[in-house]
Amino acid sequence: MNDLPRRDFLLGTLATAGVLGAAVPAGAIDPIRRQGRSLIRLSLAAYSFRQALNLTRKPPTMTYDGFIDLAASMPFDAVELTEYYFPETTPRYLAGLKGRCTRLGLDVSGTAIRTDFCVNDAGRLKEQIDHCKRWVEHTSRLGGKTVRIFGGTVAKNDKEDRARRQCIDAIQECCDHAGQFGIYLALENHGGITGTSEQMLALVRAIKSDWFGVNLDTGNFRTKNPYADLERLAPYAIVVQIKTEIQREGRKPEEADLKRKIQMLRAVNYRGYVALEYEAAEDAKVAVPRYARQLRELLV
Hints:
Layout: E1 39-45, H1 50-53, H2 64-72, E2 78-82, H3 91-103, E3 107-112, H4 122-142, E4 146-149, H5 160-179, E5 184-188, H6 197-206, E6 212-217, H7 226-233, E7 237-242, E8 245-246, E9 254-255, H8 258-267, E10 271-276, H9 284-299
Parallel strand pairs: 1-2, 1-10, 2-3, 3-4, 4-5, 5-6, 6-7, 7-10
Antiparallel strand pairs: 8-9
């Protein structure tokens, strides 16, 4: 592995080293430097149709073939495929999904998996690392660019400092593997050890790999000022999941300012995929096409 200083972090097909015009927030490390103007491609996260894709239903009301077809009927450039809804991961099945996307003019922006690198048990930790490595290989077969990962939650009988050190080492090992396949691991701000921008930055500072960055989930901060926290992390994003709601500390969810979120990304010259991950109450089949059009208009 070629460990580079964070300021020289290269994003392969997502970005190359250049000049960043945005100011660095106080306390943050040097952000990813990007060349040229912001370039955003729109993806659809499979999690948006989680009820229909749910494999516990016999049978589910939507398959991945149907999901891909649906995404192709709307103004999307790509799909993000979540591990929970794969009925199998054989090479033949993965090749079929990749081929379907190719025929319909879609990319696979990446995959999203569940990991917990805070587990306080050596055997379970190895299982989590092996799981991540397998999905790196699955994602490579699919032609994806990134694998979304979680940091995990500190156990009741554990301390965050110890769990953080273990999480860092585990992600570093997985990054070493991911680099062999040209896949980026993208750590999501997802509660637990990644619940605040400070916790996220503590991890981002420590993981030294060409193949690591942030999966910026724009709906996951439950702080007094979620937009400010998102702005702190935006310079480190290699993939983004954009949500239609935002929730401030102590308040109910509210409609998100999608224009502000896109402007936030453009301010740091973000170059990569933005996946619509719809989680609000309205039926996804009704809401997703509407939000897809809104996002496409914002990207013009």
